[in-house]
Amino acid sequence: MLYKSYITANYYCNLFRFCWSCGFSSTAHKVFDKSPQRHGHEGLASFVQGNVLGKKSPKYELCSALICCAKTLNSHLGSQIHGKIVHSGFDQNLYINSSLVNVYAKCGLMGDAMKVFDGIELHDEVSWTSMICALSQNGQGGEALCLFKEMMTTLVKPNCVTYVSVISACTEQESVFRCGELLHAHVIMLGHESNRFVVSSLIDYYSKCGRMDKAVMLFGSCLASDDVVLNTMISAYTRNQQGEEALKVFVKMRDANASLSEHTLTSVLDACGALAVLQMGKQVHGLVMKMGSDQNTFVVGALINMYSKCGDIDEACHVFDQAGYKNNILWTSLITAYAQSGRGPDALKIFDHLVMEKRFYPDHVCFTVVLTACNHSGLLDKGISYFKKMTSDYNLAPEIDQYACLIDLYARKGDLKSAKQVMEEMPFDANAVMWSSFLSSCKEYGNVELGREAAYKLFELEPRSPVPYLILADLYAGAGLWDEVKNIRKFMNENGVRKSLAGWSCVG
DNA sequence: TTAGGGTTAG
Q1: A144, A193, A447, A490: which has the highest count of C-beta atoms within 10 A?
Q2: Dmax over Cα atoms in chain A, in whole Å?
């Protein structure tokens, strides 16, 4: 088994300085890439600040400095260097501008990134790709595709990197899902299909739109020796409820003495959690300790989730306690672990304690967890009050997931009128999940009128599903409306909805 | 000397 060796951050920092001072900037970059992620960046950035900003800088040094800024997410230093670039008259240099786009994009400053991009007079494939990638990585997949289309109208031709960026953009939202297949056709025509970066982005794309047949085909056709392709495939299987296949890939990786990274660990822990295989999860935990990855935030989060999904809340807490650095995501993972193990009130206690001490600022996902915990613990009024706090205390506009929780809270309480009012007044269209939970509550409380309305909405939203027909029939039966029950059976036949009538005993 | 794939919370 190959493990990443751990050398101190100082070693990397000194080596970086040495390479840089000798003018070996590309070697310096390699050193920078290998430096441990959580250490040394600050030191390197301050070195850049001292050596680039204070001197008359050649173009390549400015470029190198910008790469460091992008990697350390240091937009402040990036802006300072930008000022120097303008002052030195290098503001039309393509290399520098592509790097600048990258710095701003990595720091989430999309307006600045676009401004630099728009200011470039003559683009090359890298400058186009930098901006396409920037949009893709900032959740603007649709815009990334538009820019790609614009690029296609120019004389500059996209390369492998462009395809990797634009294919990744297609996984962002369902509206651009179908574009991925078209891009795959481009890739085949241009002969990029054997590029491992392209392959892994395609596997990821297909797995995210549920086309595992295509993902498996691509995986089978490549050499599969690349660790990222293997990790992508483990995640792809897990995402598509094929955890056993995911574990098989992992076992093969171990048998082949493949290099295991922290990505591998998180992906395989996710598979263990999905399958609830505690023993296997513990073995991977052993590997985590052996590799010295027990302080990596991604790995710690994956461990907490794995133990929580396997029902071992004590071990989940232990992992959390051992983590030196605790961010919002880890706190949310811990709250989720309590909520998932039926300890909703404990989950809420942690949340209240944290916000009281101002140790973390809850986000949308955290509120979804809290609201779900309230829902599952029957703390309906408390849940509604948390929902209101989102806006009043934290200035967070609720999103569709939190509205779904609120609707569920009102409906479970039997306040069907309020639940329906929320569905009508919220800034989103009520989806099938919302109407389904609403319909179930209508059945629970015997509200025929609202139940009928919900069922008819579901007939439109999910025309092939027999479930709303069956629930509505149950509701009618509970109210003694036997003629209506018979009509439902007729209605199902007319609409071509098929379902075994087992369980529909109320019809008699 | 510019750009790129996979990982954590419901």
Answers
A1: A144
A2: 90
Nearest nucleotide by C1' position to the A227 CA atom: B6
- For nucleotide B1, give the residue with the nearest CA to its C1': A60
Tell me which residue of A196, A243, A235, A236 sits closest to A215, measured CA to CA: A236
Contact, A267 CB vs strand B, < 7 Å? yes
A195 strand B contact, CB < 7 Å: yes
pLDDT value of position A504: 38
Single out the residue of A163, A254, A255 nearest to residue A204, CA to CA.
A163
**Is the Cβ atom of A193 within 7 Å of strand B at any atom?**
no
A220 within 8 A of A184, measured Cβ to Cβ:
no
Evaluate if the CB of A301 falls below 7 Å from strand B.
Answer: yes
Least confident of A2-16, A54-68, A226-240, A409-423: A2-16
What's the rounded Cα separation, in Å, for the pair A199 and A184? 10
- Nucleic strand B near CB of residue A293 (< 7 Å): no
pLDDT at res. A497? 85
Please report which helix (H) or strand (E) contains residue A473, including its range: helix A467-478
Residues 148-187 of A with CB under 7 A from strand B: 159-162, 164-165, 168, 171
Grouping H, G, I as helix, E, B as strand and the rest as coil, residue A463 is: coil
Least confident of A42-51, A207-216, A259-268, A478-487: A42-51
The rounded distance, in Å, linking the Cα atoms of A364 and A362 is 7
Would you say A195 and A185 are in contact if contact means Cβ atoms under 8 Å apart? no
How far is CA A372 from each of CA A245, A283, A393, A455, rounded to the nearest angstrom?
Answer: 31, 31, 19, 24
- Whether the beta carbon of A375 falls within 7 A of nucleic chain B: the reply is no
pLDDT of A502: 47
Q: Per residue, what are the HEC states of A99-131? A: HHHHHHHHCCCHHHHHHHHHHCCCCCHHHHHHH
Give the pLDDT band of residue A498 (cuts 50, 70, 90). Answer: confident
Q: Which nucleotides of B are covered by protein (CB under 7 A)?
A: 1-10
Q: Which nucleotide's C1' is closest to A228 (Cα)?
A: B6
pLDDT tens-digit readout, A415-440: 999 999 999 999 999 999 999 999 99
Q: Which residue is nearest to nucleotide B4 (CA to C1')?
A: A161
A107 touches strand B (CB under 7 A): no
**Nucleotide lying nearest to A262, CA to C1' measure:** B7
Number of neighbouring beta carbons within 10 Å of residue A168: 22
Q: How far is CA A364 from CA A28, A219, A389, A400, in A?
A: 40, 35, 12, 10
Q: Alpha carbon of A341 to those of A137, A336, A337, A347, A405: distances in Å? A: 34, 8, 6, 10, 19
What is the pLDDT averaged over residues A84-95? 91
